[in-house]
Amino acid sequence: MIAAGATIAAVQAQTHYAQRLDPLDNRILICHALGLTRVALITQSERALTADEAARLSALLQRRLDGEPIAYIVGEREFFGLPFKVSPSVLIPRPDTELLVELAIERLPPSGRVLDMGTGSGAIAVALAHTRRDADVTALDVSPAALEVARGNAELNGARVRFLESDWYSAAAGQRYQLIVSNPPYIADGDRHLSEGDLRFEPGGALTDYADGLSALRTIIAGAPAHLEAGCWLLMEHGYDQAEAVRALLAAQGYTEVQSWRDLAGIERVSGGIAPTTAA
């Protein structure tokens, strides 16, 4: 696909126009394959590729043309201004989820205890712990492989997070927090989006509940009051068309100040409320 001896500038033009590769994907793959920074990509634009470099870049480009997500190819994705390692064991962190982190930071009291449920790559928990050094952050996931990735990301970013293997609240028995956050599986089983784009390569159990898309949200909403202190928030990310249903679930369980917040695209992406008080 890429010939040895071609200049970096020629390769950029070829992959962008001939292979119709997105310019950002193009730049990321070339930098990754050649070990270059974005500045070096410009300053070394007339450097010719060696045979090994051409073969390595060709292999990466083919993976992308076959549809594999950029984040899995390079093994990293930025989230909340921090680098996160990713693998096919975890969802790729997305900018939409930064809204959940921002809302959590606003609602977490000083030195507060926060629980992140279904942490995946650890993006939410690590971003919270990195930004709020005073916080006591616990993150749960049922997948040992995901927890391994998450622990690595906490170490990478110097964030203090306690990770536990848990099927939702099972490992949090008897524990209380000042905030619970979650980005759970919320795509309904059989949704066409599961067979499109990057979602084809991401772990199915982190995307869909294999039901109506609301079962994990119901579990979180029902269980949170027993794990939240009085006057504290539950915040959850959900699908683009689920805000009304999630608000109804929260209201039915007695949550107060129930509301939804819109992401940068104007979509109601996060919903939450203050949990009703239960006996300790």
From TrEMBL:
<dbReference type="GO" id="GO:0003676">
    <property type="term" value="F:nucleic acid binding"/>
</dbReference>
<feature type="binding site">
    <location>
        <position position="141"/>
    </location>
    <ligand>
        <name>S-adenosyl-L-methionine</name>
    </ligand>
</feature>
<dbReference type="GO" id="GO:0102559">
    <property type="term" value="F:peptide chain release factor N(5)-glutamine methyltransferase activity"/>
</dbReference>
<keyword id="KW-0949">S-adenosyl-L-methionine</keyword>
<dbReference type="InterPro" id="IPR002052">
    <property type="entry name" value="DNA_methylase_N6_adenine_CS"/>
</dbReference>
<dbReference type="InterPro" id="IPR007848">
    <property type="entry name" value="Small_mtfrase_dom"/>
</dbReference>
<feature type="binding site">
    <location>
        <position position="168"/>
    </location>
    <ligand>
        <name>S-adenosyl-L-methionine</name>
    </ligand>
</feature>
<dbReference type="InterPro" id="IPR004556">
    <property type="entry name" value="HemK-like"/>
</dbReference>
<keyword id="KW-0489">Methyltransferase</keyword>
<comment type="similarity">
    <text>Belongs to the protein N5-glutamine methyltransferase family. PrmC subfamily.</text>
</comment>
<comment type="function">
    <text>Methylates the class 1 translation termination release factors RF1/PrfA and RF2/PrfB on the glutamine residue of the universally conserved GGQ motif.</text>
</comment>
<dbReference type="Pfam" id="PF05175">
    <property type="entry name" value="MTS"/>
</dbReference>
<dbReference type="InterPro" id="IPR019874">
    <property type="entry name" value="RF_methyltr_PrmC"/>
</dbReference>
<feature type="binding site">
    <location>
        <begin position="118"/>
        <end position="122"/>
    </location>
    <ligand>
        <name>S-adenosyl-L-methionine</name>
    </ligand>
</feature>
<dbReference type="Pfam" id="PF17827">
    <property type="entry name" value="PrmC_N"/>
</dbReference>
<keyword id="KW-0808">Transferase</keyword>
<dbReference type="InterPro" id="IPR029063">
    <property type="entry name" value="SAM-dependent_MTases_sf"/>
</dbReference>
<dbReference type="GO" id="GO:0032259">
    <property type="term" value="P:methylation"/>
</dbReference>
<feature type="domain" description="Methyltransferase small">
    <location>
        <begin position="97"/>
        <end position="191"/>
    </location>
</feature>
<dbReference type="InterPro" id="IPR050320">
    <property type="entry name" value="N5-glutamine_MTase"/>
</dbReference>
<feature type="binding site">
    <location>
        <begin position="183"/>
        <end position="186"/>
    </location>
    <ligand>
        <name>substrate</name>
    </ligand>
</feature>
<feature type="domain" description="Release factor glutamine methyltransferase N-terminal">
    <location>
        <begin position="22"/>
        <end position="75"/>
    </location>
</feature>
<feature type="binding site">
    <location>
        <position position="183"/>
    </location>
    <ligand>
        <name>S-adenosyl-L-methionine</name>
    </ligand>
</feature>
<protein>
    <recommendedName>
        <fullName>Release factor glutamine methyltransferase</fullName>
        <ecNumber>2.1.1.297</ecNumber>
    </recommendedName>
</protein>
<dbReference type="InterPro" id="IPR040758">
    <property type="entry name" value="PrmC_N"/>
</dbReference>
